[in-house]
Amino acid sequence: MLSTKIEKALNQQVLLEAESSQVYLAMASWAEVQGYEGIGGFLYKHSDEERMHMLKLVKFINERGGHAVIPALKQPAPKYTGIKALFQQVLDHEIHVSSEINKLVDICLKEKDYTTHNFLQWYVSEQIEEEALARKIMDKLKLIGDDKAGHYMFDRDLATIQA
Ligand code: FEO
């Protein structure tokens, strides 16, 4: 059985994962409209992944006797100044998510909820991967700079990268 404190903290994470999915979906749509098919495809997949992260939490909360509350979401920014700004936002967002997961892990230890602590280890590993991927993408974009041909290649590259 989840304590009220853990249930509340997990529900906050449901909101954050749902927001992540929504933000990446807005980014995907913008990229697609700009003609960046590879980037769009990558971000659509990433958005689906975040929805899966949310669902996993919803199921866990309910299985442990809590109630996962499905939150309202704000509208994400519909436009971006460019792909570099967009991916910087992805990286910043993932760093934020990692820090929230770490806080959750900390609460579990303080509350001695080892079951939830164990469940969250999957998210800890997932965040390491997601942050590393976002950093790798930003490094590539820094190398490319404003080169148009470079952006074209980058878009093609991203079509082959797993979100
Ligand atoms: Fe589910 Fe990328 O945080």
Please tag this protein with its features.
single chain, 163 residues, mainly alpha, Ferritin, 5 helices, elongated, binds MU-OXO-diiron
Number of strands: 0
What portion of residues belong to β-strands?
Answer: under 5%
- Integer average pLDDT: 96
CATH homolog superfamily: Ferritin, core subunit, four-helix bundle
Assembly state: single chain
Question: Percent helix among the residues?
Answer: over 70%
Question: What is the number of independent domains?
Answer: 1
Terminal CA distance reads 33 Å
Largest sheet: none
Q: Radius of gyration, rounded?
A: 17 Å
Q: Helix- and strand-based class? A: mainly alpha
Small ligands present: MU-OXO-diiron
Q: What is the H/E string?
A: HHHHH
Number of helices: 5
* CATH level 3 topology: Ferritin
CATH class: Mainly Alpha
What does the model show?
- This protein has 163 residues and is mainly alpha-helical.
- It has one domain: Up-down Bundle (Ferritin), CATH 1.20.1260.
- The chain is built from five helices and no strands.
- The chain has helices at 4-33, 37-63, 83-110, 114-144, 148-158.
- α1 (4-33) runs antiparallel to α2 and α2 crosses α5.
- It is elongated, with a radius of gyration of 17 Å.
- The model has no long low-confidence stretch (mean pLDDT 96).
- The structure holds MU-OXO-diiron.
- The site of MU-OXO-diiron has 7 residues, from α1, α2 and α3.
